[in-house]
Amino acid sequence: MKKPSASKKPLPTAKAKPDSLKGLLTKVRQLIHSARRGVATVVDTFQVMTNFEIGRRIVEHEQKGAKRAAYGAELLKELSARLTEEFGRGFSPVNLSHMRRFFLVWQERVQIFQQPAEKLAANQIFQSPSGKSRGPFTLSWTHYVLLLTIKDPD
Question: Is residue 13 part of a domain?
């Protein structure tokens, strides 16, 4: 037996002049836009710092491994296949190579990453969600990849 549906009565609304909410609406819109920009900035920063750490771990793994040439290419291909299977796009051998190079170029410039990667906890390497402390990276990952194409690291 079908349950009778509850009647949907419109909620009573206060009779407000059309312009009486204008100021409030403007302030709330600004707040929402600001929050969305802040979230996007935090996401970008987390991605860049994560990619830096992935690069660090690749380099540390390579330093314990066999000869660089063939081993490095195979390492990136295998790592790419496994990460892509588990996490989806973003972990191609080319992108992993960018992460590796990003770490190599930026490791001397980054002060907060001075201890071995395996001793870092996630809350030590990333900024607070408030966005007040941006850390060493202020650009998006795409910008850093573009900068990696420049021959002079300075």
Answer: no
Select from 83, 72, 136, 147 the least CA-distant residue to 110.
Answer: 136
User: In this predicted structure, what is the pLDDT of residue 97?
Assistant: 93
Residue 49 in domain: yes
Give the tens place of pLDDT for each residue, 31-87: 999 999 999 888 888 999 999 999 999 998 888 765 555 566 788 999 999 999 999
Count of domains observed in the chain:
1
- Rounded distance, CA 138 to CA 142, Å? 12
What is d(CA 15, CA 39) in angstroms, rounded to the nearest whole number? 36
- CA dist 30 to 23, 26, 86, 130, Å? 11, 6, 38, 17
CA dist 3 and 10 (Å) reads 21
4-19 pLDDT per residue, tens: 555 566 555 555 566 7
| Residues contacting residue 129 through CB under 8 Å, at least 6 positions apart | 42
Distance, C-alpha 108 to centroid of its chain: 21
Could you tell me the residue range of the domain that residue 93 belongs to?
A: 35-124
Residue 15 within a domain: no
| Spatial contact of 55 and 104, defined as CB atoms under 8 Å apart | yes
In a domain, 61, yes or no: yes
